[in-house]
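Forgive a beginner's question, but would it be possible to get any protein sequence you like and the tokens describing how it folds?
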Amino acid sequence: MTPTRPRPFTRLKKLATALEKAEADQATARDALHDAILKHLRARSAPPGKIAAHTPYDRNWIGELGRRAEIPALRGPRAVGPPPKYDPEVQAAALAELDQLTAVWERAEGAIERTRPLVHKEIVAEYEAGATPEEMSAHVPYDRNWIGEIARSASTKRHRESRSS
């Protein structure tokens, strides 16, 4: 009988760390993008529709971000003053900044989309090698229930045999 040793989960830890870093990078990029959107809504640098065209959000979500930040509306019953006149140079600079921040956000999102399947594949490999979801949950940003779902949905081995009574 072989002694029971804890599994090292080296590759799984490395991939989980990469996924957590990618998620943190995306959160940082999202916060920077939201800050820039709010800055340009407050400064009236560009109309909300054009801001939406240069971000991953639609016009309605841009309006929601503005409402949450208590930025006065351009139209409707809560509108303050006449509609603004947009300077083409200021508008171009604002939209260029939003394009740049959107590209950073999309790169961060792409890193997550590339890393997550590798983590899931490693979870399945460890599961098929005999590791339990409880053991793996200490090394990944998922709880044991989600690890079990991932492993069982993709695994061809270790399915419970049905009870025949």
Remarks:
- The helical segments are 10-43, 48-53, 59-68, 88-128, 133-137, 144-154.
